[in-house]
Amino acid sequence: MITLKDLKKDEEVKVLIKTSEKQIDALAYTEHSVRHASIVSAWTGMILKETGNSPKLCKLGEIAGYLHDIGNSLSRYDHAGSGALLAYNILNRLGMNYSDSAEIMMAIGNHDEKNGVPVSKLSSALIIADKSDVHKSRVRHKVLNEDTNIHDRVNLAVNRSYINVDKENKRIDTVIETDDAICSVADYFEIYHGRMLMCTKAAELLGYKYGLIINNVRML
C-alpha cells in the first residue's frame, strides 16, 4: 500500500506543493506549504483513528490530508477540484488501486467550503482537520497595521490550535488559544462561520457533534 512516506519522497508531489506555495504567496494568502499539509495530514488520520475507523482508512486520510491543497499549483480558483484530479493521477502512478485513489479524490474535491460537502468519513475528517489549522505562523506579514486584513488578524491572534476527540461525549472540538487584544471572537466568527457549519455536518457524518472552544470558553 502507498504510504505517506512514499508521497513525501515523490518528486512530482514536492514540485506541486512548492508551486502551490509560490502561487499562494503571490496572492498574499495564508501559508499553504508543507507545514499546513503535514498538520492536516496528521489531524485527518487522528480523527479517523479516534472515531473508530480502520487502520487502512486512517492511512488514506493521512495521504488525502497531505495532498489536499496541491490544486493551488494550477489556480486558487476551484483548487479542490483540480487538486483532486492531480492526486488521483499521482496515486494511480504510484500503484494505488483505483478504488482507494477515487476515495481520496472525492475527499479532496469536497474539502473547500465554497462548493464542497462531507460525503464520506474520509472527506469529513479532512474537512475538520483543514478548517482547524488556524495559527499565527501561517501569516506572512506579521506586523499589524490598519491595512492588515481580517484573515491575517485572526490567524495572528492564535497562539495554538488543535483538535480534541471526546469519545465519551461523542464530540469533536476545535480548540483555540487566542490573544483577544489582536482580534475579537466576533472577528473569528465573521470569517469562519461557513467553515464551522461545514465542520458541523462533517462531524455528524462521523457520528459526532462538532464544537469550538476559544480560550477555555465553549462557543459551539
Number of strands: 4
Roughly how many Å is the radius of gyration?
A: 17 Å
What is the global morphology? globular
SS-derived structural category: alpha+beta
First-to-last CA distance: 38 Å
- Stretches where pLDDT is under 50 for at least 5 consecutive residues are none
Q: What's the SSE pattern?
A: HHHHHHHHEEHEE
Give me the number of helical elements.
Answer: 9
What does the largest sheet look like?
4 strands, mixed
Strand content: 5-15%
Q: In order across it, which strands form the biggest sheet? A: 1-2-3-4
The pLDDT mean sits at: 95
Helix content: 40-55%
Give the helix/strand layout.
Layout: H1 4-9, H2 11-26, H3 34-50, H4 55-67, H5 79-93, H6 98-109, H7 121-131, H8 150-157, E1 158-166, E2 171-178, H9 185-205, E3 209-214, E4 217-218
Parallel strand pairs: 2-3
Antiparallel strand pairs: 1-2, 3-4
Helix pairs in contact: 3-4, 3-7, 4-6, 4-7, 5-6, 6-7, 7-9
